[in-house]
Amino acid sequence: MNKKVILVGHFGVGKTSVVQQFVYSKFSEKYLTTIGVKIDKKLVKFDGYQMTLLIWDIAGETEQNSVSKSYKLGSHGIIYVFDLTRPSTYENLEGQIEYLKTLLPNAPIQILGNKKDLISEEEFNSVKESITLPFKATSAKTGEHVEEAFIDLAKAML
């Protein structure tokens, strides 16, 4: 079974790095801007199920309503990525998630606070207190919680 997953969020939050870590177990320090959309796929196995994730890495935008709806339509799941080190990427998190839920009401959403490896525990706790929605703290660099996020989303898409 194939499922389309979109990765969305501000530019520079690490969406492409999260995908590279999940699909290829790779991380690069080089920053490459995504133009339009890049599509990868990966077969995941869990609880006796097999699912092919078609992962659409969509170019970053400050506001989700700036991103072409055509990229998002037909999505079965959403991964929203923000940068734990840049408050501007999560200040309007609730509004961004609400917009995505309106656009794709049946698509489960995983929210990832990326770049956990770049902040102290104290800084992380401060960020956690300022965000009301549940999220996973990830690091595309170390791989922390990256695979878990995709597997949890796959389970929610069954």
Automatic annotation (TrEMBL):
GO terms for molecular function: GTP binding; GTPase activity. SMART domains: RAB (SM00175), RAS (SM00173), RHO (SM00174). It comes from the Bacteria. Keywords: Nucleotide-binding. Coiled coil: none annotated. Pfam families: Ras. CDD domains: Rab (cd00154). The keyword Nucleotide-binding applies. The keyword rRNA processing does not apply. PANTHER family: PTHR47978. This is GTP-binding protein.
